[in-house]
Amino acid sequence: MSLRGEVAQVSVEMETKSPLPCPNTVTVRRNPHRRARPTPSTTAPQIPVPSSSSSTIDRDIPSFPIQDILSIEIPQKGQSPTKPDLPSSSSSSTDAPVSENLRVYLRIRPLLPPKATVRNGGAGEQNHRSRAKNAWPQNLANKGSARDKNAMKKSGEACLTVNDFQSVILSPPLALKESKRIKSEVYGGFSQVFPPDSSQGEVYERMLKPLVEDFLKGKSGMLAASGPSGSGKTHTVFGSPREPGMVPLALQQIFKQSEGNNSETFRSFSISIFEINSERGKGEKAYDLSPDGTELSMQQSTIKGLQEVVISDAGQGESLIARAMLKRATGMTNANSQSSRSQCIININSVVNKVDEVGNNAVLTIVDLAGAEREKRTGNQGTRLLESNFINNTSMVFGLCLRSLLEHQKNPKKPLQKHFQNSLLTKYLRDYLEGKKRMTLILTVRAGAEDYLDTSYLLKQASPYMKIKFNNVEESSIKNGNKRHVQALPRVEQPKRMKLSGLEAQAPEEGKCIGEEQGLSEEEASQIFRLDVNENATRKSDFPGLAEKERNHQIMQNFTKAIWNVLKEYNQKLKVAESEIQSLKENLTNEKTRSLELGKELEDLKSCCTCSKGLHGDASLVKICTSSESIVELNGSNNVEEKDVDLHSSSLRASNCNDTLGKCDSCPRQDKYVFSQEKGGNFSLKLSGFNCVDNKQESDATESSSDVDIRNASRFCVENCNQQNYQVGDIYPKIRHDLGDLNESKSLGVKYNYPDANVTEVAISYSRSHGIVRDDSCSSVELDQLLTKEDKESWDLPPSPKEDAAFTQARSGLDVLDSEPISGTPYRDLNLEKLSRKPLLASSIWPRDCSALDVEDGIMEPVDLLDPPQSQKEKVTFTKECDADVVPNIEPRVDSSRKLEKPKRRLLPASSILVRDFSALGVVDDVEKPKSNRPGRKLAMDERKTTQGRIALLRLLKINPPP
Ligand SMILES: Nc1ncnc2c1ncn2[C@@H]1O[C@H](COP(=O)(O)OP(=O)(O)OP(=O)(O)O)[C@@H](O)[C@H]1O
C-alpha cells in the first residue's frame, strides 16, 4: 500500500468515528489565540495531534483531551509543579541559558477576606491540599475550580477566574456585557497564576524561591510587584506578622540556607530599604527608610547616601523591614485604607568574604510599586490626587520602558527608548528595564466586578511582557567580576574622587563601588578593584564600543584643552587692552585738566582784555616758584585777594596789589612774576611777561635780568607802573639787591634798556618801614627836563634813553648796590654819598613820575603805596601791570606837546627827594604816612610836595655837595 493510500484510509476511519463532544462554552478571545500549553509532566502522555493530512479533519473541531488532563499527576506536598516552560530553580543554575523570558506572575486577591487564620507554611499546605482536590489546571469546561465557582457565587460579581495555572478568564460585569457587548477574555502566558486562595508560602515557593536560590549562588535578581491600588502588592511583598510576605520569607530562606552551608565561604548580608515619593506631586524624592535614614540623592542610576544595615539573622532583617514599613508613606483612599503612596525598594545584599569567589556578590531587589489608581475608584482629591498622578506616572513610565524593550527586542532596528529617564524608580532599575538583568514581575489584581476595569487594563498592559527576554549578561560577567553587577548595588557617597584618564578613570570608581556597596574593608575593595583592572582587557573586548568611546573622550578632552588655551590667550589680551584703556583714560584726564587750566588762563586773558581801561591791577597770572620747585600759580585777578607764602618756610604770600597801581590802560597780556627761592635761602624775583617782550627776551629777562635778593625780607611790594610806551624788546628789568637786615628803606637796583627816549625807566625801591619795592617807570625825558645838564653831569645821572650806550655805565652805580651791600647805614639804597655821583633813584622820582604820567584817561589813581596794611607783614606782594602799548586803542598818547607839558608839572624840587630819602632814614614824615586810606588826590599832593622837597634837596646838594 502506498503512503497516499494509508493516509486516505486513516482519514476514512476518523470520519467514520463519532466526533468528540464539544465544550459547553466557547470563549471569545480578543487577544491572539492562546492554547493551553501541554502539561509539564514528562510522564504525561503527549496530546494527540490530529493529523493534518486530511483536510476534513482540519475542519473538524478537535476533541478536548480531557482524559489526558485527568491523568496528570498532581504535585504533592512541598513539591513544585513541574512545568515545561516554567523555569525552575534548577533551570536557573549555571547551566541555564543566558537568555530568558521575563517571568510574569499573576496573583488574584481574594474577594472576601479568608476566614481561616492563615499561617505561614501550614496554611499554604492546607491550601495546597484543598486545591489539590481540584483538578489543576482547570479547564474551560469546568470554569475553574469549585472554589472559584463558590467565590463567584458568593460575590456574584467576580470578573476574573483562573483558567489554568498560566491563564485567567476576564469576564465583564453583566451590565457591560449587555450594553457594550464585551465578552470574556482569556489572558495567558503567565509564569503562574496564583488563585485567590494562594498562600504567601505558595507564592514564595513558586515565584521567589528560585530567585533566592540564584541569589545565593551569586546571581542578582529583582522582583517587582505591580497592580491596581488595593490589589495586594504590599501584602504580597511584606505580608503581615501572620502572613509574612516575600521579603521575610526570603530572609528566612537566606539565613537558613547559609547556616547549612559548610563551605569555607563566609557570606554576610545587609539590607537597604528606601522609598521614592512625591510631595504634592512636585518632583520625586528618595528617602532612606532605615533607622537613621535621611533624604537620598540619585546620580544616574546610583543612589547616594543609602545605608546598608548588616543583618546576621532573619529576625534582624524582619525587624528592620517592619520599622521601615512604619516610616513608609501611606494614606487612606477609597480603594485601600492603608494605601502605599511611594515606591518602595528593598535590597538584600550578599557579600562573599572570600577573595577567590569573585562574582558571588549579589543583590536581590524587591520592589513594591505604588498601585495605579483611578480617581473615580479612589476618590482622591487634593494632595492624594497629586500623589495619584505621581504614582500613575511612575507606573506608566515603568510600562513604557518594558514596552520599548519588547519592541526593541522584536525589531533591533528600533532604538531602545530612554523612558527610564522619566522617573527615579526607572532610573534606578534601568538595568532591569533594559533587559540586562533578571527580573520577575508579579501582577496583583482583584477579582471583583467593580475591579473589572482596573484588572482589564493591567492584564492588557502586561500581557505582552511575557515575551520580553533579558540577556543575562550578569551571569557571564559575574564570573569575571563584571562591573555592571556592582554598579547596580547602592553606593555610599564618596568624599573625594580620583582623577584618572581613560579606562583607568573608571576602574577606581568601580573599586570604590565595590567597597562601599558591599561594606568591604579597603583591602578587600582594593582586591576587587585590582581584579576589575585586570579584567579591563576582557571588558574592552567584551565591549567593542568602549574603544570608540575612549577615543571620543580623548578627542573631546583635547578639544577642551585647545579651547581653554584660546580662552586664556584672549583673557591675557583683554587684560593688556584694559591696562591700555586705563592709561589712555589717565592721559585723557590729564589732558582735560590741562585743557581746563588753559581754558582758565584763556578766561583770565579774556577778562584782562575786557577789563576797563587802566584797570591795571587785573593781573592775569602770577607764578611763584619755591625751592622745592613747586609752582604756585596765582590768578591775579581782582577776585584773588591774596595768597600767602611764608618766605622762610618756602612758602610765599602774595596779594594783589592792583589797587596800589592805580589805573592804567588794560592790556591783554600774560605778565609773570616769578619768585623763586634758592637753596641758600635767597629769593629771587623774576619779572617777565611784558607783553611787548617777545618770548626770547622774556626768557632772558626772567633768567638773568630781574633778580631780587630779598633774603630776610619781611615784606615787599613790586609795582610796575610802566604806563609809558615800552617797546618790544626794550625792557630788561634788572633788580638785584642784598637787603641785608633791612632795617632801613632801600632801593633796589634797576636796570632797564632804553633804546628809545620815550621809554621810561623803572625804579624799584624798598622800604623797610613799608616793605615796599616799587617798580616805577619814569620818563628819562622828563628827567632830562627836570635836571639841568650840570646836575646830570655832576650827579652822574643816567643818560637819556637815546644815550643808551651810557646805560651800562649808569648801572654801575646800581651794581655797587648789588655788589656792595651796605650795612649799618639806614640809607643804603639811597646813599647820599653817591647821590652826587649816581643818577637819581627811581624811588625819588617815582611819585613825580606817577603824577607826571597823569594818565589822561584818569585810569591811574594815586595810591598810597607807602602805607600798606601792617597786617601784611611777612607778605610778599606781587603786582603787575599792563603795558598800554599792547592795546592799540588805549595806547597812551604821548605826543611831543604833552611831553613838553609834563616837565612843568613834574618839575619837582630836590627836596622832594630828600623828603623821600629822609623818610628812608627814619625821619617821621606825616606826608609819607597818610592816615587816610584814600590816597587819591591827597597822595598826589603829598607826592608833589615830596617831589618838590627832593628838588630842593638836589639843589642843596648841588650847592653844597657832600664831601
Ligand atoms: N492575598 C491576600 N490575602 C489576604 N488579604 C489580602 C491579600 N491581598 C491583599 N490583602 C489585603 O488587602 C488589603 C490591601 O492590600 P495591599 O495594601 O497589599 O494592597 P496594595 O496593592 O499594596 O495597595 P496600594 O497600592 O494602595 O498600596 C490589605 O488589608 C491586605 O491585607
- Counting structural domains, the number is 4
Biggest beta-sheet profile: 11 strands, mixed
Shape: elongated
Structural class: alpha+beta
Highest CATH level, the class of the largest domain = Alpha Beta
CATH superfamily of the largest domain: Kinesin motor domain
Number of β-strand runs: 29
Strand content: 15-25%
Which ions, cofactors or small ligands are bound in this entry?
A: adenosine-5'-triphosphate
Can you characterise this structure?
Helix 18 runs antiparallel to helix 19 (522-534), helix 24 crosses helix 29 (896-906) and helix 30 (910-921) crosses helix 31. The chain is built from 31 helices and 29 strands. Strands 2, 6, 7, 8, 9, 10, 11, 12, 15, 16 and 17 form an 11-stranded mixed β-sheet that branches. A hairpin with a 2-residue loop joins strand 10 and strand 11. 45% of the residues are buried. It is an alpha+beta fold. Bound molecules: adenosine-5'-triphosphate. Adenosine-5'-triphosphate binds next to helix 8 and strand 14.
Summarize the structure.
The chain is an alpha+beta fold and 963 residues long.
Jot down its keywords.
963 residues, Kinesin, 5-stranded mixed beta sheet, disordered N terminus, binds adenosine-5'-triphosphate
Please specify the SSE layout and strand pairing:
Elements: H1 3-16, H2 55-59, H3 66-70, E1 99-101, E2 103-109, H4 122-132, H5 146-155, E3 160-164, E4 167-170, H6 174-180, E5 185-187, E6 192-194, H7 200-216, E7 221-226, H8 233-237, H9 246-260, E8 267-279, E9 282-288, E10 295-299, E11 302-304, E12 309-311, H10 314-327, E13 330-331, E14 339-340, E15 343-352, E16 362-368, H11 375-378, H12 382-410, H13 424-428, H14 430-433, E17 439-446, H15 452-462, E18 469-471, H16 473-479, H17 483-487, H18 502-517, H19 522-534, H20 536-542, H21 544-610, E19 622-625, E20 631-634, E21 642-643, E22 654-655, H22 658-661, E23 672-677, E24 683-688, H23 695-705, E25 715-720, E26 746-748, E27 760-767, E28 772-779, H24 780-786, H25 789-795, H26 807-819, H27 832-835, H28 842-853, E29 875-878, H29 896-906, H30 910-921, H31 936-959
Parallel strand pairs: 2-6, 2-17, 7-16, 7-17, 19-23, 25-28, 25-29
Antiparallel strand pairs: 1-18, 3-4, 4-5, 8-9, 8-12, 8-15, 9-10, 10-11, 13-14, 15-16, 19-20, 21-22, 23-24, 26-27, 27-28
Helix pairs in contact: 7-9, 9-10, 18-19, 24-29, 28-29, 28-31, 30-31
The site of adenosine-5'-triphosphate has 19 residues, from α8 and β14.
Pfam families: Kinesin
Binding site for ATP: 227-234
Coiled coil: 567-594
